[in-house]
Amino acid sequence: MNPEESNPEALLIAITQHKFCTGLSDAHLKTLASMAEAVSIEPGRFLIREGGKADRFYLIRTGKLFIEMYAPGRGAVPITTIGTGDVLGWSWSLPPYRWHFDAKALTLTRVVSLDANKLKDRCDEDHDFGYEIIKRLLLVAQNRLQQTRMHMLDLYKPPQVEQL
After folding, report:
1. Which of 26, 99, 139, 152 has the most Cβ atoms closer than 10 angstroms to its Cβ?
2. pLDDT tens digits for range 60-70
3. pLDDT digits (tens, 9 = 90+) for 79-106
4. How many CA atoms lie within 13 A of 32 on its CB side?
């Protein structure tokens, strides 16, 4: 990790520039920066593992992550690839606070890692802040569900039938 990435000013800039945070007030951006750290993940390394404790929330600054889940009898099943400008992990926001998938770096990936326990506490204490975070999480969930829907349509589309 580059030392300049982990100083408070650099973290605030990284958070401010991330699309998840677009439109947040300066106070809310500073709140996020107060619970953040810069993390780098080497290619082939896992950032999260299915079943593990979901206690972080990630803003992806650069790189690509492969999202997969384990299916008995099939092994790892690919879900999607996410990258620069995306976020990873909303499992921290709902019980049982466990990851439901694996995320493995495909390339050198740099993220802002947020302490989810501090984030939950702050959302509970400051409902305006919490509302802004939840609105953004819902947009992420909506987009991921739409991606999954499109993927399922591709998987299950009927074969082409020639017309007579």
Report:
1. 99
2. 999 999 999 98
3. 889 999 999 998 999 999 999 999 999 9
4. 28
Distance CA 55, CA 141 (A): 18
Structure tokens at 72: 């008995």
Q: What is the C-alpha to C-alpha distance for residues 111 and 59, in angstroms, rounded to an integer?
A: 5
3-156 has CATH 2.60.120.10 classification: yes
Q: For residue 33, what are the CA distances in angstroms to 60, 95, 112, 133, 162?
A: 14, 25, 9, 14, 58
Annotated domain spans of the chain: 3-156
Phi, psi of 114 (to 5 degrees): -105, 135
Beta strands in 8-63 (DSSP E): 36-41, 46-48, 56-62
Residue appearing with tokens 């007030």? 25
Which DSSP category does 56 fall into? E
Could you tell me if 104 and 76 are in contact, meaning their C-beta atoms sit under 8 angstroms apart?
no
Beta bridge partners of 104: 46, 66
